[in-house]
Write a structure and sequence with these properties.
alpha/beta; TIM Barrel; eight-stranded parallel beta sheet; 16 helices; 10% strand; globular; binds ligand FNR
């Protein structure tokens, strides 16, 4: 019966041609509280909307009759070859969208030749993911109040050979998502009758979660003294985001993490400069997908000036709002070397597990390849401001 339930999502995938199609399948498959947790943003969602709408301000310059037969989306990300300038962004609770979701997403990323980032707030732990995939992946770190735990997390990331550390710096105070509160999407989730009925109507989701082996924050549970139930875990988690964080903490992380360090959550030129001074190998221009400071500008509208301030010495990554290859092309034209995608791949995961994530990466890569062709560009490294109209 499980196999039959799985066939449904895979059959529906045949008609998928856009990330929006994956979103619609995710919406249908998944309990409302989990879908909204992914889809929505903070407060009035001004920044969430701007993240999408502002891409349209940047128009492409069409270039015809250039031989683009040999074009390719292949590139390098932090010196490593990648099939496309794409990275799967860290996303908390991925394993609640699809059973063992982090393992499925990481496998899809590795098959498709792009990096995967595991969130601190993942359901599958660092060790779980490492045991089920072939190649190294990236780890995203939140600096919790308990610095001993942070150090232990870094040591675990080193032990499983994570190839980069993504330090997220835009969540020392948490932006409220009204919809999560209305849906009872708290840690632990509120078990309201409405939610239970909603869950009962989602057989594909139930089947995937029942097949999955993990149910709670894998990196946290079992590694903390006195935290042995979901209730004590939630109390611990809620008390751990640290408003005292400062650049000194970034220096400390730099001193104990020997590998590549990426600072994620930069939205302003001065902060980009500071991040580089701390010795970051890359920075991610991001507003956390419109989930944190509402009223902040869209990430795409800040990219060019941050790129100018950074000046080419530090690798620039971008996220927040990418739903197509056209969006990736614009971000690359404005100065990014690669893009993280968050919701785009989670929609794929919720639509059909590993196959859905691979589909999301494939859709965006192919759209990028076509856009490159119509703008007369053969290589990712040749994408620059020349592909956009003067504004
Ligand atoms: C996130 N994001 C995030 N970032 C991070 O550093 N650690 C995390 O645990 C999470 N968790 C998380 C959950 C969900 C459901 C979403 C949608 C996002 C932010 C994420 O890494 C990325 O910055 C955004 O998703 C980018 O915007 P798009 O691509 O979703 O528009």
């Amino acid at each position: 019966q499980d196999a039959r339930r799985e066939q449904g999502p895979l059959r529906a995938m045949k008609r998928v041609t856009t990330i929006d199609d994956l979103r619609e399948l995710h919406r249908r498959n998944t309990p409302r509280a989990f879908f909204d947790y992914v889809d929505r943003g903070s407060y009035a969602e001004e920044t969430l909307r701007a993240n999408r709408a502002d891409f349209e301000h940047y128009k492409f310059r069409q270039k015809i009759l250039v031989d683009v037969d040999a074009r390719s989306t292949a590139t390098t990300i932090l010196g490593e070859p990648a099939a496309a300038p794409l990275i799967l962004a860290p996303v908390g609770l991925t394993g609640m969208q699809w059973g063992d979701g982090e393992i499925h997403a990481c496998r899809a990323a590795q098959k498709m030749g792009v990096p995967f980032t595991l969130s601190t707030m993942s359901i599958c732990s660092l060790e779980d993911v490492a045991a089920h995939v072939d190649k190294p992946f990236w780890f995203q770190l939140y600096v919790m109040r308990d610095r001993g735990f942070v150090k232990a997390l870094i040591e675990r990331a080193i032990a499983v050979k994570c190839s980069a550390l993504v330090l997220t710096v835009d969540l020392q105070v948490i932006g409220q998502r009204h919809q999560d509160i209305k849906n009872g999407m708290t840690v632990p989730p509120e078990l309201r009758l409405k939610n239970l009925i909603d869950i009962a109507l989602r057989p594909a989701w139930i089947a995937s979660v029942m097949r999955g082996k993990r149910r709670t924050f894998g990196n946290l549970m079992g590694h903390l003294k006195g935290v042995d139930s979901v209730k004590s875990l939630s109390q611990w988690t809620n008390s751990q985001f640290d408003p005292t964080l400062s650049w000194k903490d970034v220096d400390w992380i730099r001193s104990i993490w020997p590998g590549k360090l990426i600072i994620k959550g930069i939205l302003e030129e001065g902060d980009a400069g500071m991040a580089i001074k701390t010795g970051a190998d890359a920075i991610v221009v991001s507003n956390h997908g419109g989930r944190q400071l509402d009223g902040a500008p869209s990430a795409i509208s800040m990219l060019a000036r941050i790129a100018q301030a950074v000046g080419g010495d530090t690798e620039l990554m971008f996220d927040s709002g990418i739903r197509s290859g056209q969006d990736v092309m614009r971000a690359l034209a404005l100065g990014a070397k690669s893009c993280m995608i968050g919701r785009a791949y989670i929609y794929g995961l919720g639509a059909a597990g590993e196959a859905g994530v691979a589909k999301a990466i494939d859709i965006i890569s192919k759209e990028l390849l076509t856009t490159m062709g119509l703008c007369g560009v053969n290589r990712v490294s040749d994408i620059g401001p020349q592909v956009l109209m003067d504004m």
